[in-house]
Amino acid sequence: MIARAGAGPLRHLVVLRHAKSAWPAGVPDHERPLAPRGRRDAPAAGRALAEADLLPDLAVCSTAVRARQTWELASAQWVSPPPARLDARVYAADVPELSAVLHETPGEVGTLLLVGHNPGLEELVLHLAGDGLDDALDEVRLKFPTSAIAVLAWRGGTWRDLAPGTALLTDVIVARGKK
């Protein structure tokens, strides 16, 4: 059941997969930087969030270099970026680990941005979404590419109330910068 009405304020979870990364020889996965395309797409993701009026109150970001660079380039598009928390648990995380991170979100946060990696982010979106607008769920099932943004909405008293199938997937945006 989707919590569309009832107890608590409307909350948004904005899930951003890191932008396209490079694969330099000899560099550990955690240290891989953004590729040139990723350096173009990450700012486009920030602009897309601003245009959709989805600027977060808080960001939680993987500690991986490519995720941190995505966050830095995206948030640089905003007049006043929110606080960000780097969390090592988001790197290579599965749904239970990501859910634990989300459940720690302070109650005053209405919109949370989670910047991380696949397959965990795609699985999280599908796990939380009980329904989706238009063909949003099918889009995520088909592919959740780099620089993809998924927007989940639900009503709940706290972030601990975010449970499987309780959110509505309202939008999927794939941000692409110009060459």
TrEMBL record:
<protein>
    <submittedName>
        <fullName>Phosphohistidine phosphatase</fullName>
    </submittedName>
</protein>
<dbReference type="InterPro" id="IPR029033">
    <property type="entry name" value="His_PPase_superfam"/>
</dbReference>
<dbReference type="Pfam" id="PF00300">
    <property type="entry name" value="His_Phos_1"/>
</dbReference>
<dbReference type="InterPro" id="IPR013078">
    <property type="entry name" value="His_Pase_superF_clade-1"/>
</dbReference>
